[in-house]
Amino acid sequence: MTRALAAGRVVAVVAAAPLLVVLLARAGLMEWLERPFIYFPSRTLERTPAAAGLAYEDVFLVASDDVRVHGWFVPGTGPVTLLWFHGNGGNIGDRVGHLALIRSELGVGVFIVSYRGYGRSGGTPTEQGTYRDAEAAFAHLRARPGVDPGRIAYYGQSLGAAVATELAARHPPHALVLESPLPSIRYMAGVAYPFLPVGPLLRTRYDSLARIADVRAPVLVLHGDRDEVIPYEGGRRVYEAAREPKRFITVRGARHDDVFLVGGHDYWGAIREFLASPAGAPGR
Asked: Given a cut of 50, is residue 14 above it in pLDDT?
């Protein structure tokens, strides 16, 4: 389960202590101030894929800055392998139920990693750190025996959609699936408090709106029309900024954390069709 991105709480701090924020910004300490309001990691793995009856392998990677990152590889039966980037709360242990549904509904292999500072991964989360974790995960998957490097798709949720987009801009995937995508941290601050000019002070960007135009791969965006965290309009903006071929799916009645549950058969069918023929999926 993904916890809410707390851009509003970031802005609340700004409103309460504007002078402190300006001083921190000048000192280059804004990222330190922002971190507790963006990342909500948990160190405890409550479940493993074995709890859902899934075969899996523990994988430990070393990112380019020597941080150790932990993930799970769950083998599939089809040609596509999904590289999954989760949201900003908990760790991969909180996604086991969702992982089981992906495996049963799509039949794909899945590789999911906890970002640094989450679960059994070392280090402390930062924007650049999550990008390094994604790079390490991709390098491992591309070199893994039995995985077709030309059929690796990225799947990002919420904050993870920004991580997936950044990686896709540098390493084009077979397909890019974005669920409830975050346009940018600045966008979220502007939505929460439009009359407070905090955006220019924020050091953490996760700017999918800027990066997705550089993605040269088919894109599928899914967003709930009752999303209480990242506005539905924000998901539409990410979609509009993407290149063709692309497709947008509105999940009626879905909030931020339950898109894959509320979407049901239609949700899984759309992703299944897209992964099988990403360039042929009609846009809307």
From this structure: no
